[in-house]
Amino acid sequence: MNAQVQKPFEEILGYLEGKKRIVLMGCGGCATVFHTGGIEDIDEMAKRLTKEGKVVTGKIGLPFAVFACYLPMSSMFLKEHEKEIEECDAILMQSCGDGAQVVRAYLDEEMGIVKPMYPANNALGFSGGGPASFREECQACGECELGRMAGICPLVQCPKGLLNGPCGGTNTDGKCELDPTRDCAWVMIYKRLEKLGQLSELEEIVGPHDWSKQVRPRSLEVEPIDLMEKLKETKKVIEHLGV
Ligand code: SF4
Ligand code: SF4
């Protein structure tokens, strides 16, 4: 998931200075899980902005599991709210920067509506876990090393991103020299390889990481999924849960 927190309200108000009619748009994916862009979060933002003299002319709340960044679904909501978007002074995006830019580009290029758009949130990157605690595990480097590292990512878990053993500064209690509250990534990797009976893997020198895969922006072409078929599967889960 793309972890995120809401920006300080003063910063949001600063963006909206001189803008009266505001459309709010959220996201039914990560932003709902992190309480930064779910339907309730949009309602809350609308109340706060109204108190500050803004007129919220549109609230584009996406139901859970409808991602702002996935246009086959989010574009339906944009079209439904076309009039409010056309008539507003600004759009406040309560999503991550990915969702915000996908929506901005769709409005610009597909719907021909060019409006100022501002972010309500700060995205913090991939984090897994839940329902309450999340932890960053992967920085999407494009060349996964987990297979050579006992399933523990040294690029994220080690502040120096070391691929061939610890830096030499590891504390005697196994904590990282740069952050004594956390375990040294290489102590974790060693212990796990030991449990797996694969310590001999440490004898191999790992070649340089291919950083060229991090040249950005990266893009990807895939075969589109059959959305209706996938939704049928989701429907089964919903029915199973008795919703
Ligand atoms: S090596 Fe680490 S950052 Fe790269 S893809 Fe694997 S888990 Fe993600
Ligand atoms: S102590 Fe371990 S986790 Fe910390 S920087 Fe050195 S090798 Fe990386």
If you had to describe this structure to a student in words, what would you say it looks like?
The chain is α/β, with parallel strands linked by helices. The chain folds into 2 domains: 2-129, Rossmann fold; 141-205, no CATH class. 35% of the residues lie in helices and 14% in strands. It has helices spanning 9-15, 30-33, 39-51, 71-80, 82-87, 97-109, 154-157, 185-196, 227-241; strands spanning 2-6, 21-25, 55-60, 90-93, 117-119, 121-126, 128-129, 134-135. A hairpin with a 4-residue loop joins strand 7 and strand 8 (134-135). Helix 4 (71-80) crosses helix 6 (97-109). The mean pLDDT is 96. The site of one iron/sulfur cluster has 14 residues, from helix 8.
Instruction: Output the number of helix runs.
Output: 9
What is the residue-averaged pLDDT? 96
User: What would you call the structural class?
Assistant: alpha/beta
Unique ligands: iron/sulfur cluster
Uncertain ranges? none
The end-to-end distance, rounded to whole angstroms, is 24 Å
- Kindly estimate the percentage of residues that lie in beta strands according to DSSP: 5-15%
The name CATH uses for the topology of the largest domain is Rossmann fold
Spatial strand sequence of the major β-sheet: 3-2-4-5
Overall CATH architecture of the largest domain: 3-Layer(aba) Sandwich
Question: Could you list some keywords that capture this structure?
Answer:
2 domains, Rossmann fold, 243 residues, alpha/beta, binds iron/sulfur cluster, two-stranded antiparallel ribbon, 9 helices, elongated
